[in-house]
Structures are given as C-alpha cells and as structure tokens.
Amino acid sequence: MQPSVPPPTLLPVEIWLACCTLCSRRQLRRLSLVCRLFRSLALPILVQYQTIDVASLAIRMTMDNWRDRLRQLQRTAVRLDKLSQLPYTLLVRSWSVTFNQRGRWYLLGVENMQPFDTLNERVVSTLSATLRLYQNLFSLQLTHVTVDGSLRETLSLLPRLEDLGLCNWEIVVPDGFLPLKCLILCAPGPTDTKEPLQIGCPGSLRTLHAGNYLSRFITGFGARILPQLVDLSLGTVQDVGLFFQFLGLCPRLESLAVRVLSNRAALPEVHATTIPHLRTLAGQPKLHHLLTSGRPISTEVLPGTSFGLATHEELVNVCFAITRSSAPVHSLKLVPKEATNLELLAAITALFPELRKLSLTLPEATDAPFLNVCYGRRPIPPVELEWPDLDDDTAFDNTPADDLRRRDRREPYNRGGEGR
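^ F-box domain-containing protein, sequence as received from the core. Prediction below:
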C-alpha cells in the first residue's frame, strides 16, 4: 500500500493562501486550528488588520448592557497584551484605534466607574508602550488622540509607516516631519492650538486630506514643493490667494476636492502651467470655471452645498465650462438644489458624448417642521453596582454570539485594499 498523503499537502501552498484571503475572520480562526500548515497561512492574514473601538463601548451604556461592555473592554485589554508579544507584532500591518473621549465613562445613577477607568487606562497605556514594537505597521488611524512628544517619537520609530489618519486630535508637539505617503486630518479637539503643522514630509506625501487647516500646513511646509502629491482634499478655504499659491507647489496633482471656497476675495488668474495633470475635480461651480479649461479632467463632481448650485441655468453654464477640458469627460456627479427634469438631463448628457457614468443626487425635502422638546429629569438615586470578577485567563470564554457576528462579517477579510 502506498503511504497516505495528508490532505493539506495535496495542493500547493499558493492555492491554500488564495483560499484564505477569501475567508472571514471566523473562518480564518477555524482554519488556524486545523493543522500547522493552515495556521501558518491563516494567522498572518488574521492578525495583520487590527481594530479597537473603545468609544463605542461608552456610548449609550445602560443598566442592562454595562456588564457586557465591561467584559468586552477586558477582552480588548487582553488582546492588546497578547498582540504585544512576538511574532504577532511583526504580522500587524494596520491599526485603527478609537479611544474613549477624555477617558470618560458614564452610567446614569452610578458614581464609581473605577473598573471601567482601570481597564481604559490599561488599554491606553499598553498601546502607547507597545506601539513602537509594530515594526511592519503600514497604516495607523487614531481617533480621540493627543499627539505629544512621546507619540511623536513612537511614530518616528515605525520605519514602514506610510498612512496616518487623525480624528478629534490635539497636537501638542507640532514640529517634525514624518516620511508619510498619506495623511488625513479631520475634526481637531477643542483645545487644539493654531500653530503651524509639520506632520507629513512634503517630499514624500502623495495624499493629503487637510480639512480646514490648509493655512497651517502651508506655514509648516514653508516654500517647499510637494513633488509627489497627487491627491488633495480640503474643507473650507478662507485665504483664496494662499490656496492658489499652494497649488503652484503641487506640480503632479491629479485629484483636487474643495468643499467650500470663500467668497470674500476675488478669484485670481490661474496660469495654464499650474497643476497641468489634474484629472479629478470636486468643488463649487466657480472652481470648475477656473480650473477645467485646458486640463485633462475626466471626472467632475459638483456638490450641492449652501455655496453651490442654485438654478438650472447655473448648472448648464458650468457644464459648458466643463466641456473645455482637454480630455473627454467620463464621469460626472451632480448634486443640484432643485429637482431636475428629463429635458435638462438630456441637454447635459448631450454635451459629453463619451460620458460613461452620471450620478445625480436629488435634493431632500425640508418642509417638515422641526420639533425640539426638552423634558426635565427627576433626580436619580445613587446605584451600587455588583462588579463581576474579571479574570484575564477566562476573558475569551463564552464570548457572546452577538459580539462574534459584529466583528466577523461574511465578506472576505482583506477586502478593501492594503492598509485599510
């Protein structure tokens, strides 16, 4: 008789690896328990994208769910301790962390939230102390975070870090460029200063989402050229002149999105050699009138904001301006304030014979009355909670099925691109 061949070795490792990339988190965990081969293939995929959302545990906490929230916070702390050990730290490629805002834990009628505070501090301190161990970290997204000197030093010690996103941030130490390729900032904290920002190195940045803080970035960059920047997204731009000067420092820019361009100053003349490679433009009609002509823009987005489109006539006029692009328009997204008719859509599409995608968002009705009623609250007597015993060794025993379903979706685990 011929010796038996183990089933996992019947196919090449590359085939098994391709199958693993299509599995969910729950399926990957089950595969990792089959044999050593499957564990060696599933574990790197399972570990490389990590997410912690402590803030969601503190939202809408009630007397019915506080025990589940407490145990889930404990599991988060235990998972961080396990991940900080080799070889897991070298397998993690992406971290997305949402801290609890200012570390506050609130439960109606309960004054002492010490177990929550203790576990929350444990999560924050463990991640702060071990973040520098993730030497293969590619992407880092932090929410409710303070960028102080310690975090600055930690970020500088991550050699592969390319993608950094900060939301509800406060930057205490604004100096020091990091060799990032993607930097996304949104919603600063209430105590954030107005100092110049030096986070992403202007020589390496390819994507910059600067929100409403372009002037602070420009001050931090100085007169440095951004030779690699291809994607720029902004919120409200107050200093129009400074904005167009900055565009002159971005010779390879391909995508530009501006939510609001201030009406306080007249738009300057833009030379034809400024951002000559622009392919995607999103903004108000006046921005399309100014930048479309002579540039190879094939994707146009006209958002419907309070400063955007007002009438069908303006919509048609800006579409005529878009036709002056040096490249055929393939994608057009319109968000008008008024309801459009088929005749108008036919007239618009006739202007773009090579149009492949047309997106139209109709305005929402705002005639419904807004009712705001405030009710007085009776004083709540203090409540004494009976805290459960928290044992790290049994933290993952009897994990609730709802918790598993929430984290283990059915779509492929690595879907959405690297570092996301």
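Residues 1-47 form one domain.
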